[in-house]
Write a structure and sequence with these properties.
CATH topology: Rossmann fold
Number of strands: 5
Helix content: 40-55%
Largest sheet: 5 strands, parallel
Strand order of the largest sheet: 3-2-1-4-5
CATH architecture: 3-Layer(aba) Sandwich
Number of helices: 6
CATH superfamily: HUPs
Strand content: 5-15%
CATH class: Alpha Beta
Order of helices and strands: HEHEHEHEHEH
Length: about 190
């Protein structure tokens, strides 16, 4: 019985380690393509109403890609955070200040989690007769986001990661491991 527990523990640790490597590799290797719309996933807004550093880096990456004509439209997706701000509205304001025309920014204030963002995005894309998307998020979030977008009906999901690394990424990688399998079986 002791050997069984040891081997099982080793197998789980190897599976975890292998999956984390895949998440990092997938997230850091941008899959850039010219698409109809970029989808920026929300993140924390600070108490002063400004995007957190993580969210700002997502937005900055989207601005860079928009300026290089990778997409014509941008969906900003987020919910009302515990700080009380509409993440999508804060994101839209940030993009407008950066020079992206307001009529190119689509607001999704009901994207309170990754799956809701995917679900709302497919509805928006179909309504506008568009079909291709690129997601923009943190590198550790890319694999699960692609999975969610595939599950709601997107055939191909392109991706770009925000250029930021923090110590809290360790926690986020563990969280993503668990969340990925939760999305996989739901």
């Amino acid at each position: 019985m002791r050997k069984f527990i040891q081997y099982t523990t080793l197998a789980i640790l190897l599976w975890f380690g292998f999956h984390i490597v895949i998440i990092v590799f997938d997230g850091l290797n941008d899959d850039l393509e010219f698409v109809d719309v970029g989808v920026i996933l929300g993140n924390k807004v600070e108490l002063d109403g400004q995007p957190s550093k993580r969210l700002q880096r997502r937005l900055d990456r989207a601005i860079e890609l928009y300026e290089n004509k990778y997409f014509k439209y941008v969906i900003v997706s987020g919910g009302i955070g515990k700080e009380g701000f509409d993440e999508a509205r804060v994101m839209k304001d940030y993009l407008i200040q950066a020079g992206i025309p307001e009529d190119r920014i689509i607001l999704d204030s009901k994207g309170s989690n990754t799956f809701m963002t995917a679900k709302n995005s497919i509805e928006i894309v179909e309504e506008m007769n568009l079909n291709s998307v690129m997601i923009i998020s943190q590198y550790y979030h890319i694999s699960r986001t692609k999975l969610a977008f595939n599950k709601v009906g997107f055939d191909k999901v392109y991706s770009a990661h925000a250029r930021i690394f923090e110590i809290r990424d360790i926690y986020s990688l563990v969280r993503e491991f668990i969340a990925y399998y939760k999305y996989l079986v739901s």
